[in-house]
Design goal:
Strand order of the largest sheet of chain A: 3-8-4-5-6-7
Number of helices of chain A: 8
CATH superfamily of one domain in chain A: Ferrous iron transport protein A (FeoA)
Structural class of chain A: alpha+beta
Distance between the termini of chain A: 49 Å
Largest sheet of chain A: 6 strands, antiparallel
Number of strands of chain A: 8
CATH topology of one domain in chain A: SH3 type barrels
Strand content of chain A: 15-25%
Largest interface: A-B, 18 and 18 residues
CATH architecture of one domain in chain A: Roll
CATH class of one domain in chain A: Mainly Beta
Oligomer: homodimer
Shape of chain A: globular
Order of helices and strands of chain A: HHHEEHHHEEHEEEHE
DNA sequence: AAGTTTTGTTAGATTAGTCTAACTTTAATA
DNA sequence: TATTAAAGTTAGACTAATCTAACAAAACTT
């Protein structure tokens, strides 16, 4: 049985090294920053996780999850996202409120609970942020993420997620009516000052390219149906 | 903000000193036993809780909650029982399974979560064990508990709760078809060997007076309707 | 009332997770 | 390549919660 702290290290490693295509390992400082602890603390814990064969790690080297560590990390991420879905769908929490509470709920130990919750929610595939929920059998499809910056002028896309889960950011995008599974049109872009003009639900706003980089989108929407 | 351990001490004190009429304070050994720690450990923590003005305690004396400590303890008990109700009502957990998981869920910190959960469950008054759920405003009606041993031969009563939440006990009473809000008839009793013959849902069983002491019952049921 | 048992406390050790400060290794750059 | 900067580690200290062992106080019991 892992401690809550150990679970958090595995989750951080999963986010940093597995979730996106291309990434494979993470440095100690990067891991420490993700968990908001000092590098010394992370260094120590990485040594312990290596002992437990949950990560691959050599002194002064980068870290990555072992098969076993990845499996456990995905179970935690699965719990986190199922709880987020519960809070959003059943208790009416908003997009930006769910993360903080799910950070606590994800550590509840009960196999039965999580499977019942999954059934209760109707086997959801995505959480309220549009992130894929790992399945009980360990299945998890990696998605090549495309951001708002990849969308050409005049094109409409579908928002599928965000890469910044801070309450500040989530509230900000909510203020622009940006939401999961909602179409978004890139009206125009000014590359040199890096500002995009966008339209969501008939409402136009400006967004910086730096922020647009945190908004993941999927396929173009040819017929901007219910905008 | 209290630690999980501190919350558990407050909850133990609430159970031992507040929940039933008559009880007002608890000894160190009793508290240690409730929490499954050594008396030395409890002694130390009682000193700390006194520092924080959550309990009244003097060296070598008995302990009781202060007004502030009691309020916090009741919030934890409220959370515990709301989660038990959720697990039972919404996720189909059985009577004897809910306690263990609720022990973890009760420590989740989110005012909003617990109020939304309460609404979602339709403002329940009792948990699946028949125990009263403390209300958000701090209201909590003490109930004079009457046990199966207080019921005369030939009389029928209504089961309202149990005082032993161990999985073993809950499974045992479940095996006798004893359940909350279900009528139970005391067919006969043999005072000297302390065995009661009871009838639930037309099924007769024998139960020792020692175990009967852990089964709380309410008013007699004159017409044993749907037995 | 004296002795014994029960109850409760104190002291010192242990573990997990964190920190700071000092040090080492690796990478970047002039 | 020599120096500097960045990244990472080690050592030592701290806190919270626990334990065991030894001690002290209170409560029974003749």
């Amino acid at each position: 049985m892992l401690s809550i702290t150990e679970e958090n290290y595995l989750k951080a490693l999963f986010r940093l090294t597995c979730e996106e295509v291309g990434k494979t390992d993470a440095g100690t400082n990067e891991i420490a920053a993700q968990l908001d602890v000092k590098p010394a603390t992370a260094s120590d814990m990485l040594r312990k996780l290596k002992e437990k064969k949950l990560i691959e790690y050599e002194k002064y080297g980068k870290s990555m999850l072992t098969r076993r560590g990845k499996k456990m990390a995905m179970e935690i991420v699965r719990k986190h996202r199922l709880w987020e879905t519960f809070l959003y769908e059943k208790l009416g929490f908003t997009w930006d409120e769910v993360h903080e509470v799910a950070e606590q709920l994800e550590h509840i130990q009960s196999q039965k609970l999580i499977e019942r919750l999954n059934t209760f929610l109707g086997n959801p595939k995505y959480d309220p942020h549009g992130d894929l929920i790992p399945q009980a059998d360990g299945e998890f499809k990696l998605i090549e993420k495309k951001t708002l910056n990849d969308i050409a002028e005049g094109e409409t896309c579908l928002v599928v997620g965000v890469s910044d889960n801070s309450a500040e950011f989530l509230q900000y995008v909510d203020g622009l009516s940006i939401a999961i599974h909602r179409p978004l049109k890139v009206v125009s872009r000014k590359p040199f000052d890096a500002i995009l003009e966008i339209e969501v639900k008939g409402k136009r706003s400006a967004i910086s390219a730096r922020l647009a980089d945190h908004i993941f989108v999927s396929r173009e929407v040819k017929k901007a149906a219910k905008m």
